[in-house]
Amino acid sequence: MNKYNLFTFFGLLSMVGLLSACLSKVTFEEGLVTSQNEAAIQAYIKSKNLTMTQSGAGLYYTITKAKADGRTCVSADTIRLQYVISLLDGTKVDSSTKNNPYKFVYSVASPVLFKKFISLMKEGEQATFIIGSELAGGTQAFPSQNIPANSPLRIDITYYYTSSEEADIDRYVRDTIINKLKYTLTEKVDYGIRYIRTKEGTGDYPASGKIAKVKYTGYLLNGIKFDSNYGKNTDGTEKDSLDVTIGSSSGFVTGFLQGVNRMKKGEKATIIFPSSLGYSTSGKGGIPANAPLRFDLEIIDFKDN
Q1: Is the CB of residue 17 less than 8 Å from the CB of residue 30?
Q2: pLDDT tens digit string along 105-147?
Q3: Angle at 223 between CA 76 and CA 167, to 5 degrees
Q4: Could you tell me the domains of the chain?
């Protein structure tokens, strides 16, 4: 199952439940399926000699490798998981890949079931979960993933790592900015902005109220470019530079403005800042919620307002 399907599969469960609840016949049939699922789960637990704890209707789990001092995730953490999803007959229907853990940001938009799973775990632990079909695909079959309708599932989480946004930025600066691009971190300034000067500017810093003519490219920390005013328009003309008022606190995200305020004419810099100085918990367009951002900036010129 690809990650888009996985997200959809686990993310639309509440919708399936709401639609089903509107029909009394379906509700009766679901109750019957739930009872059958429960019997199958109990038989499976007994046959595998598992000791499991129930956490709400249709969800059982056991911590197979404990780490009592492991970190508990909080909102905006980046979660990385290695997992295997199987039918109770042992058929594997999905898994993460060995060198590419399933990754998501812990937020209201995260896959519901994985959020539930990790709420029962600490970083570094391993666990096995068994869920009834009412928490999985319900009456919907997924033939391409070999998941029949009304199928309970087993999920084994063999690797769980959670890191704060701050730690993710530090890792990015170390691995990408310093080790790969061979730049030096110039300074870390207010509210977690990392400033990397890549070309010296000239003259004095501009006075508040001046207009900076800015060229920029914006990236997520996974390398995806989400915006740029370098290059040409579709009609072949050069894209315009961006007008940014020095000292302004509106019009652009705070991290971007603070980066521009620190630059001289002709200067180039890379700035990296946390989501609290970007699009926070809301996101925008192709920028997800809780995403730290990188901007490569160039000050072309300054002009009077």
Answers
A1: no
A2: 887 777 788 889 999 999 999 999 999 988 887 788 788 788 8
A3: 35
A4: 3-163 (3.10.50.40), 166-303 (3.10.50.40)
